[in-house]
């Protein structure tokens, strides 16, 4: 079943992959991706928005497939020169990527909002899906560690996620407001997908936006989450390491429980099928590893079919339940 309009909540690489699958499965103009901006920072005097760019490059098909972030066919001439001049070169900004940061920063200085700037950039790169920052005002993820409080990119890239994480907070969230475009997208959505992004570094910053969690709890569309934890490990990034350090069990069950109040259904990988009866909502067990365009689109289609079987205004119940769909006992 193809819902009319899907919202995906996404962070970096995992979110961008599933967004690409959703875009392909839905066709143009039916996907809105609401993206984490907690990773954004000021660097070289420019505003860098890594997750917005990762989603945009993936949806445009111009991302670097090896890293998942940055652009394909990239060169690093400016970065090298910056290093020679004693500038900061720990964050690998490519030359083509740099043009995006220059343009964004120029437009922001002229008074455009991040929502407007992001829309101009994605249109210029030919992306037919809407990409929305979760906030127009700065919200910055601060990682509290055994080495002190670290701005996100310093923890993630400069220190390679080595410090032990104690807690994570989102500075500026309490006084931020949901952009009108996000409100508008929520009004039209008939399926909402939490991508397999890091719960604490990617999805929680979005959910920390005032009013959003409540808005999702009462939203009539089915809300589906996809586990970023597979077989006791994170598909990518530090989610599993952070969970261990914060005293949590590294399991899709922990993630499902974390979103219990907002989700209607949860998707786990086949290798975690045995855990599905510990999850207190309907569960789809499938192959969640997205290695190519086919697997991204297949997972997206399965999630949409799963959503169609749950409640929602335009989601007529499907006549036959797939065998791998488990509902909790009444
Ligand atoms: N991640 C790294 O691990 N090292 C980098 O040097 C790096 C540079 C970079 C440049 C532009 C961009 O958009 C993303 C970049 N990333 C880099 C990824 C990024 O820091 C993280 O993947 C996200 O913030 C987490 O989702």
CATH superfamily heading:
CofD-like domains
Fraction of residues in β-strands = 15-25%
Radius of gyration in whole Å, from Cα? Answer: 19 Å
| CATH T-level topology | Rossmann fold
Question: Kindly, what is the distance between the CA atoms of the first and last residues, rounded to a whole number of angstroms?
Answer: 26 Å
Number of H- or I-type helical stretches: 12
User: Which ligands appear in the coordinates?
Assistant: ligand FO1
* Lateral arrangement of strands in the main beta sheet: 5-2-1-9-10-13-14-15
- Overall shape: it is globular
Structure description:
By secondary structure, this protein is of the alpha/beta class. It has a single domain (6-320), classed as Rossmann fold (3-Layer(aba) Sandwich). 36% of the residues lie in helices and 18% in strands. The protein is built from twelve helices and 15 strands. It has helices at 13-26, 50-60, 77-84, 95-109, 114-124, 152-158, 180-188, 199-207, 212-217, 239-245, 252-258, 293-308; strands at residues 6-10, 31-35, 41-43, 46-48, 130-133, 140-145, 148-151, 165-171, 191-194, 223-226, 229-230, 233-234, 265-269, 283-286, 325-326. The chain has an eight-stranded mixed sheet, with helices on both faces. Helix 1 (13-26) runs parallel beside helix 2, helix 1 (13-26) packs across helix 12 (293-308) and helix 4 packs across helix 5. The longest helix is centred in the C-terminal third of the chain and has 16 residues, at 293-308. It is globular. Residues 312-323 have low confidence and may be disordered. Ligand FO1 binds at residues 11-12, 39, 50-51, 53-54, 69-70, 91-93, 97, 153, 156-157. The site of ligand FO1 has 16 residues, from helix 2 and helix 6.
């Amino acid at each position: 079943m193809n819902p009319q309009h899907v919202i995906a909540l996404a962070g970096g690489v995992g979110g961008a992959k599933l967004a690409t699958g959703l875009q392909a499965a839905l066709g143009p103009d039916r996907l809105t991706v609401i993206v984490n901006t907690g990773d954004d920072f000021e660097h070289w005097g420019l505003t860098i928005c890594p997750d917005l760019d990762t989603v945009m490059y993936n949806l445009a098909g111009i991302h670097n497939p090896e890293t998942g972030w940055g652009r394909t066919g990239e060169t690093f001439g400016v970065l090298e020169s910056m290093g020679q001049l004693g500038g900061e070169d720990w964050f690998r900004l490519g030359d083509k990527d740099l043009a995006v940061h220059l343009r964004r920063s120029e437009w922001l200085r002229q008074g455009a909002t991040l929502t407007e700037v992001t829309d101009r950039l994605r249109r210029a790169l030919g992306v037919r899906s809407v990409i929305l920052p979760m906030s127009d005002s700065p919200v910055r993820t601060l990682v509290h560690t055994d080495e002190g409080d670290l701005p996100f990119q310093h923890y993630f890239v400069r220190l390679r996620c080595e410090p032990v994480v104690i807690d994570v907070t989102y500075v500026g969230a309490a006084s931020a407001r949901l952009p009108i475009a996000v409100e508008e997208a929520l009004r039209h959505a008939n399926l909402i997908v939490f991508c397999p992004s890091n719960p604490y570094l990617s999805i929680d910053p979005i959910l920390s936006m005032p009013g959003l969690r409540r808005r999702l709890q009462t939203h009539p569309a089915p809300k589906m989450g996809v586990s970023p934890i597979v077989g006791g490990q994170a598909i990518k990034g530090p989610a599993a390491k952070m969970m261990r350090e914060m005293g949590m069990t590294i399991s899709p069950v922990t993630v499902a429980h974390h979103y219990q109040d907002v989700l209607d259904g949860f998707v786990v990988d086949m290798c975690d099928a045995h855990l599905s009866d510990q999850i207190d909502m309907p569960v789809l067990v499938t192959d969640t590893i997205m290695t190519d365009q086919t697997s991204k689109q297949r997972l997206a289609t399965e999630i949409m079919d799963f959503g169609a079987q749950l409640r929602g205004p335009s989601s007529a119940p499907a006549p036959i339940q797939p065998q791998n769909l488990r509902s909790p006992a009444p």
